[in-house]
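Need tokens for this chain, all 404 residues.
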Amino acid sequence: MSQRFLPYGRQVIDDDDRRAVAAVFDGDFLTTGPYVEAFEEDLCRVTGSAHAVVCSSGTAALHLSALALGLGPGDVVLVPSVTFAATANAARYVGAEVMFVDIDPDTGLMTPETLTDAIDTRSAPGRLRAVFPVHLAGHAVEMPAIKAIADERNLDIVEDAAHAIGTRYGNGEDWIAVGGCRHSQMTIFSFHPVKTITSGEGGAVTTNDPRLAARLKLLRSHGIVRDVSNFVQRDLGFADDGSPNPWYYEITEIGFNYRITDLQCALGRSQLRKLDRFVARRAVLVERYRQALAPMAPIVKPLTRVHGCQPGWHLAVALIDFATAGVDRATVMRELADRGIGSQVHYMPLHMQPCYRERYGTKSLPGAEAYYARSLSLPLFADMTDDDVDHVAATLAEVLGIAP
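Here are the structure tokens for all 404 residues:
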């Protein structure tokens, strides 16, 4: 049995990853070079999307998506309350408001029912413009139904798939890769080291809309236009003979420096080639957790599996009845850490966070609160062993006082 410390998540870096990054140093570009476009092309192949725009982080990807949709003051974005802060913050970055949507307490996901309930029974602080569903832990939201609801109300959709690269959903015959944007305008990914694949830091937006892709690329790099066919100031952009001035570029709107380096993209490309292997191994580990936790029911249970989903698992979440076990979550986390096991909570519902309580008042979302009260993310990464999982489960049972 391994005696190493087991964090809740970590990168798996091999020699081929190191060689891929080292090869960049032998070229001419460390950033804004050929590896960026190559990584984007690879992501299109993996997801089935027409366009991919890589950027500095998943948060940047969300911000760029909100900008590309033209969201702003007076608009409202529907966001599940259980997600990382960036999902909601991206709406606030552009001046839009947020309406938090409840979730299924056993899956952690926004559902068609909770989305409809939020739209139909609560007063929005503005005009509903978009919904940002979150594929939590690797589980996919029921996107066809979410799209049907959004279409009825003329809402745009941005899928937050920071947890879900490699996830597929469908009806058993037609499997759709998350990121293919069949049921959304855009999908975002994160390549943080705890995710299934990593580029160090990094993110991406996929889309099938060439206009959105063009705006994403423009906004990613300061709003700079270098295509001479799009220059608007011909007197400044061109010489007397009609040739473009070689130094000239235009800033047509305010953008950001959300670029990603060739070093990161080289690592991302190398990792992406191992995606299927990583996803398969994580699935084996999650299934082993499921079996190992089964004897601890009803005090401990895994997430309820979503029908019609093949998850690219990012998290191994245990739902624990801490009150029945007679021990609080903080104590469990400390005692696990003392035994070499990391854990985390994903996430405290955003409607309970001070900045959002101050803005929108105190509200109750019972599904989100029930999920939060029970959730604990256990270690999950691709080079864990089966014995590691057994060790985590046995130690958790010991800490909770559950007899073997």
